[in-house]
Design a protein that fits this description.
- Chain A: InterPro entries: MetI-like, MetI-like_sf, UgpAE/MalFG_permease.
- Chain A: The chain crosses the membrane at residues 44-64, 112-132, 153-177, 197-223, 244-266, 302-327.
- Chain A: Residues 7-22 have a biased composition (Low complexity).
- Chain A: Keywords: Cell membrane, Membrane, Sugar transport, Transmembrane, Transmembrane helix, Transport.
- The structure holds 2 protein chains of 2 kinds.
- Chain A is an all-alpha fold.
- Chain A has helices at residues 10-16, 27-61, 79-82, 89-96, 98-120, 124-133, 138-149, 156-167, 172-179, 196-221, 225-233, 238-263, 271-276, 282-285, 288-298, 302-331, and strands spanning 72-73, 84-85.
- Chain B has helices at 27-56, 60-64, 78-83, 89-117, 126-135, 143-152, 170-181, 185-193, 198-206, 211-227, 230-235, 244-269, 281-317.
- By secondary structure, chain B is mainly α.
- Chain B folds into 2 domains: 26-86 and 243-317, no CATH class; 89-240, Orthogonal Bundle (MetI-like fold), CATH 1.10.3720.10.
- The chains are: A mainly alpha, B mainly alpha.
- Chains A and B meet through helix 2, helix 6, helix 7, helix 8 and helix 9 of A and helix 1, helix 4, helix 5, helix 6 and helix 11 of B.
Chain lengths: 336, 318
């Protein structure tokens, strides 16, 4: 900006023209004209991104206004103005009606169960990466990596499709078990209320384990080889090296991811649970996100669903702030 | 099926594994267990895809019984011919391809532009806009408010609901911004001294110099768009706007009636229908699933390094 100093630019010349109305073209005016120019260009830059800021407002901030729905008995046919204002009725219902409370309790249990199973298995990608790193043949290591990360890139619909092909009553597994004489009647793997949480955990591991390990593989590659050499000279064996060198170096990454997932523990997403949901497993598969969909879109309790979604969003933001504070204290830097 | 990928960029040659002279007696059993374990895991991940593919080209009566397990039986491609006539499939394919192409172009250009613009310190209240943009990653109004918003904006039952809400992606913007900040500052200054305006500098100088990061953004966006299912579920009831993913979901749930429809269609054509080629719920599901998954299987090994780069860069900032 300051490169033009001294040489009169057209902008300055233009700005100087109206200055004739004033008594004298004093130096302050000259400096002011340059400020005008730079202010214009800084406003121009802003105007260039304005359309995108409008999009952000429309799709991220404007929907927050929809939270008022939680305080109305919203009927889409009547619109917001025609709907009745009910204050905190929906929030009170959450804790006053026994059936509602029982339902919410079950949903919360499912949500937290899925999240805690996720935490409990969060070290698996670390071990996966550490063990894969011990594979010496590069072609084998790369092939394993490609194949195990592939499931991460297919949709949950396809995962369900695969689950259906393999585990439905006429699917591959039942057919194999039947042919080998182990069973006479097909086992219902999908249409059952047994082991729903476990099944969901295994599917998300199938989809995400290999991908989750990539970050740790990269972290391992960044460890200083001198550390390994000196450990080996000191007589450390393979497992000692893994335990005392590799593992501790992966912990910072691991802790950040764990803290973030704790902050996200109410947000399981609905897609996985939606596609696997059926009349048999509904009680154990409904996590908060799915429940909001089920009662809101399918059940038409739009206001109740908004109230629950709103509470969930607020608690999630609080959790994130808390998680960030913890991380700040532990590591000195924030994670968000 | 899956080609061996090029070595990952993060994996530089190094010597962290012990030299062979230091192998201990425990090494051989450990290697056997380790290799076997990973072999099983790779098979566990790959076999389902293989299973879908061999079943989609096998005799339909055998595949319906779950008898096609290792090799295709009674190879035929008529499933692919017949499924083209299934109601809604071709329009869903067009919708999916269109949203992937248009959506990716829009999101990549917007991410590139915003990532660049947020490095322009002259911009009026730049850090405020940047913070407001990034903050949207950490909250969501929720399902119903989003639905009401889309309805108010007239985006329900519109193709643009697949594109417009996804144009601004804060995470991509962070990636691009970090990348631009690492570029030599003189690049932009030189362009400005030569009299190039912001747009010109962006399109002529900055954009051509950030293809690696844009490739990463593009590949992630394309996969997200192709796989997207929830937006159709929430905002679209018009069948002509269904995506392939959503169609696959409906097929999974109502495949029996569809098989009947396909068989009726065959009957009308007067062709001789044999058990091996007549459509079954299984054959329809498998064939559509293969159509949906093939693009991913093909592009993934080719672009693996971009995916890996994406997660690495994300981790730096994440």
């Amino acid at each position: 900006m300051s490169l033009t100093q001294g040489t009169p630019t057209t902008a300055e010349a233009n700005a100087a023209a109206p200055a004739k109305l004033r008594p004298a073209p004093d130096p302050r005016r000259r400096r002011g004209s340059r400020e005008v120019r730079s202010a214009q260009s800084s406003k121009t830059l802003f105007l260039m991104i304005l359309p995108f800021l409008v999009l952000i407002f429309l799709f991220s901030y404007l929907p927050l206004a929809g939270w008022v729905t939680a305080f109305y008995d919203y009927r889409p046919a009547l619109g917001m103005s025609g709907s009745e204002f009910v204050g905190f009725q929906w929030f009170e219902m959450l804790v006053s009606s026994p059936t509602q409370m029982q339902q919410i309790g079950q949903v919360l249990t499912n949500t937290l169960a899925m999240s805690f199973l996720g935490f409990a298995t969060s070290l698996l990608p670390v071990f996966f990466a550490m063990l894969l790193n011990e594979i010496r043949a590069p072609w084998f290591r790369n092939s394993v990596q490609t194949l195990t990360t592939l499931p991460n890139f297919i949709s949950w619909v396809l995962v369900y499709m695969i689950a259906f092909s393999l585990f439905s009553t006429s699917g591959l597994v039942n057919s194999v078990l039947h042919d080998s004489g182990l069973i006479t009647t097909p086992i219902k793997f999908l249409d059952t209320d047994q082991h729903v949480w476990l099944a969901m955990l295994l599917w998300s591991l199938w989809k995400g384990l290999g991908w989750g390990a990539i970050l740790y593989l990269a972290a391992i590659a960044a460890i200083d080889p001198a550390l390994y050499e000196s450990a080996r000279i000191d007589g450390a064996g393979r497992f000692q090296i893994m335990r005392y060198i590799t593992f501790p170096h992966l912990m910072p990454t691991y802790v950040v991811l764990l803290v973030l997932s704790i902050a996200n523990m109410l947000n399981n997403g609905m897609e996985q649970y939606y596609v696997f949901q059926n009349a048999f497993n509904k009680e154990y598969i409904q996590v908060l996100d799915l429940y909001v969909y089920n009662i809101g879109i399918t059940g038409n309790s739009l206001s109740m669903a908004t109230a629950i979604g709103m509470l969930k969003s607020l608690i999630s933001v609080l959790l994130l702030v808390a998680a960030n504070a913890v991380a700040k204290r532990a590591r000195g830097t924030s994670i968000i | 099926m899956v080609t061996t990928p090029s070595p990952l960029p993060v994996r530089k040659p190094r010597k962290s594994t012990p030299p062979s002279s230091q192998r201990t007696r425990g090494d051989i059993p450990f290697a056997i267990v380790n290799y076997t374990g990973f072999l099983l895991m790779a098979l566990l991940c790959a076999y389902p895809f293989y299973y879908l593919i061999i079943n989609s080209v096998s005799a339909n009566d055998a595949s319906a019984l779950g008898d096609v397990r290792l090799l295709p039986q009674g190879l035929h491609l008529s499933n692919y011919e017949q499924i083209a006539g299934l109601q809604g499939l071709s329009s869903a394919a067009i919708v999916s391809v269109a949203r992937t192409v248009i959506g990716t172009v829009c999101t990549v250009l917007a991410s590139a532009f915003l990532g660049f613009m947020f490095t322009q310190e002259r911009m009026w209240k730049r850090s405020l806009w940047y913070r407001l943009t990034i903050f949207t990653m950490y909250f969501s109004a929720g399902l119903i408010p989003m639905y009401i918003t889309m309805k108010t904006l007239g985006l329900t039952n519109s193709f643009w609901v697949y594109i417009i809400p996804l144009i601004v992606q804060p995470f991509n913007i962070i990636l691009v911004k970090t990348y631009v900040e690492a570029m030599p500052r003189s690049l932009q200054e030189a362009a400005e001294i030569d009299g190039a305006g912001t747009f010109r500098t962006f399109f002529r100088i900055i954009l051509p110099n950030m293809t690696p990061i844009l490739a990463t953004v593009a590949i992630f966006t394309a996969v997200t768009q192709w796989n997207s299912f929830q937006d159709t579920l929430l905002y679209v009831t018009d069948q002509s706007l269904y995506s392939l993913q959503y169609l696959l979901y409906t097929y999974t749930n109502q495949a029996s009636s569809l098989a009947q429809a396909a068989q009726n269609a065959q009957g009308n054509l007067g062709s001789i229908v044999s058990a091996a080629t007549s459509q079954t719920p299984t054959s329809i599901r498998m064939t559509v699933a293969v159509i949906v998954v093939l693009p991913i299987i093909f592009i993934y090994p080719l672009f693996q390094r971009y995916f890996v780069k994406g997660i690495m860069l994300g981790a730096v900032k994440g």
